């Protein structure tokens, strides 16, 4: 995908809590273009980066496989962390494999960040070619099991439909910044 990147400079305004700014819009100059939405999460001054587990956002074509990063924003774990993920939204199509295990619908599943590491060993999603013409978005949220001190920052998987023209996608990415 050709990408145009723009910069956002966030002032240090002393706000202690996190804020999320959703971004969307329209593409001019071509009615057949699709704009994917995105967001900017501004982390507050009291946010401990070593206690946030981030699920990255990913786009995949039907019939293909993608890896999704899930890990701490900073540092490593002192013990194994079990991340329980719950799908919502469009749900996984029948025939989807996560790390080789079949899932479907809004099924939950677990991943592990090993002790001394900063991210899960693997989060590989294989999506079937099921002929659906429209794009679908699967949201993934959940929690870090057995640890109230960690926060899970959700992510999503966008499965491109068969009618999606890859030359006409403008994606607004999801990024984070901290003060």
Topology overview:
Elements: E1 19-23, E2 34-36, E3 38-43, E4 52-55, E5 58-61, E6 65-67, E7 70-72, E8 81-89, E9 92-98, E10 101-105, E11 108-113, E12 124-126, E13 136-145, E14 151-153, E15 155-160, E16 169-171, E17 175-178
Low-confidence regions: 172-179
From the helix content, strand content and strand pairing, which structural class follows? mainly beta
Largest sheet: 5 strands, mixed
Rounded Rg:
17 Å
Number of strands: 17
N-to-C SSE series? EEEEEEEEEEEEEEEEE
Mean pLDDT: 82
- Helical content stands at under 10%
Shape: flat
So how many helices?
A: 0
Query: Whole-Å distance between the termini?
Result: 30 Å
Query: Which strand order does the major sheet show?
Result: 5-15-13-8-11
Strand content: over 45%
Architecture overview:
- The chain has strands spanning 19-23, 34-36, 38-43, 52-55, 58-61, 65-67, 70-72, 81-89, 92-98, 101-105, 108-113, 124-126, 136-145, 151-153, 155-160, 169-171, 175-178.
- The strands form five sheets. The chain has a five-stranded mixed beta sheet with strand order 5-15-13-8-11, with no helix packed on it.
- Mean pLDDT is 82; it is low at 172-179.
- With 179 residues, it is mostly beta strands.
- Strand 9 and strand 10 form a beta hairpin.
- The protein is built from no helices and 17 strands.
